[in-house]
Amino acid sequence: MSADKKNTSIDSVSLLRKVFILLTVLIVLAVLLLIFQFTDVAFRVWDRLQNTPSGFLLVYVLGVIVIATLGILLIYRIWTVGRRKPTKKASPEPLRVEDVQARLEDARSKGIDVHTVDQDLAAVSDKSEPRELQIALFGKISTGKSSLIQTILPQAHIDISIIGGSTTRVERYSYTADSGLDLTLYDMPGTQQAEALPSMEAEVLEATRRVHVVLYILDQDLTASDLSAIKQLIGFAKPLIVVLNKSGQYEDDELVQLRERIVSRLPEGTMLVTSDSAYRREVTIRGSDGDARQETRLVGGEIDELLSALSNLGEQRAELGEQQRHALLSLADESLKQRVGKYRRERGEAMVKAYARKAMLGGVAAVGPGTDVIIQGYLGVDMMKSLTKLYDVSVKDVDLHALVETASSKVRSHLTVILALAGNVCKAFPGLGTVLGGASHAVAYGLVFESLGRATLTTLESSHEDFSDTNIMQHFEEQLHHDLEQRAKKLITTAISGRSERGSS
Known about the structure:
Blueprint: H1 2-50, H2 54-80, H3 97-109, H4 115-125, E1 133-139, H5 145-152, E2 171-176, E3 182-187, H6 191-196, H7 198-210, E4 213-218, H8 224-234, E5 240-244, H9 252-265, E6 271-274, E7 279-286, E8 292-299, H10 304-314, H11 317-364, H12 373-376, H13 378-390, H14 397-426, H15 432-436, H16 439-462, H17 469-479, H18 484-504
Parallel strand pairs: 1-3, 1-4, 4-5, 5-6
Antiparallel strand pairs: 2-3, 7-8
Helix pairs in contact: 3-4, 3-11, 4-11, 11-13, 11-16, 13-14, 13-16, 14-16, 14-17, 14-18, 16-17, 16-18
């Protein structure tokens, strides 16, 4: 039996091979026939052209060239029709104080809190040379950032823990050197702590953008995590000094070798200095009367090289001040966008809830969702107008009507499921029919309008340029499947509470 199957399989393969050979022969013959025909026609045309006047020959050749060119252009147009040409992204225009100020005034007129943005813009407008040098100190825990500041500012009260990690927030200290250089030092939390607290990380990064100079503190050889943090800080486009602290714990030859190793691994152009921060020590003091008392004093401390590097940077205050103003302008712009975005989100969500309630009231008398408000589009278009106006997006009324009609057609395919779900949810609220009338239709209306409003908000949040029927309908489809049961319960609860409040008043 198996031998018969094997023979059958061999026969099938042999037949297929013969078919393929036959097709190949036919194709080759057809191609040769076309070549012969083309050659025959070409020779006959050539023979006839030999006996034609030169003027006619010129016209004939030009006609062939024109027709061939038009044919190529037509093929190109057909091939590229409907295809989007890749557009080059225009480089963003540089920020201008006037533009940010205009947006600030518009936000203020809407009642948005812009106090901190005002302060940043005021600092940007101040073109005078900064009177102080602002410095941020970074590094892992236990590298001696706080003790280094204590060395610079002996009178400052700083919590220095021998366990490490004593700084858990951004601390600010001021200092005036003997040379007259004013310094403001920002002691940042250890890098491990900042990474563990996302809010702290944001605060640290913002503080870094505001300062003139960044110091990164080491107390040993450079590690991979140190190098990663240094490269990230270099990205802020500010002068960066790497400080090898606690240098007193190394012998002179060890310190030279360590410096060479660190410099060889640092990004090119990064400055390295050494320092030895002071430390607290209990000492016994004996008075003239012979009584002994214990005191905590700072011992040691060598920061001359660090102060010299900072003093050199202090001579570049004008340039550093200009860099800081650019950073402050960017921060003001970002902060303003965040505040306006929050205002729009809150107002937009409130609008969607209000229109969902209106839709529920309209749904009480409707035959079914999508047969009145959505199809006719009056309430739907009004909601879309309000949301696009909130986000300063200019959209034609015709486009909004078309969008709402598209939404209504999509609702029809989900109508049965939405009504069934609304009916089941309404059963959990006894007596709901006497409160809202056609409860299931009303809830379905609310879900449809809430879904359309949320889809519009999501699209507007992503980008004004992406505001299109396709993107909104994609988000609308997602909303029509997203947690409908819980949303329906919230809509009913809101509607009942709202009706109760109106009844009591």
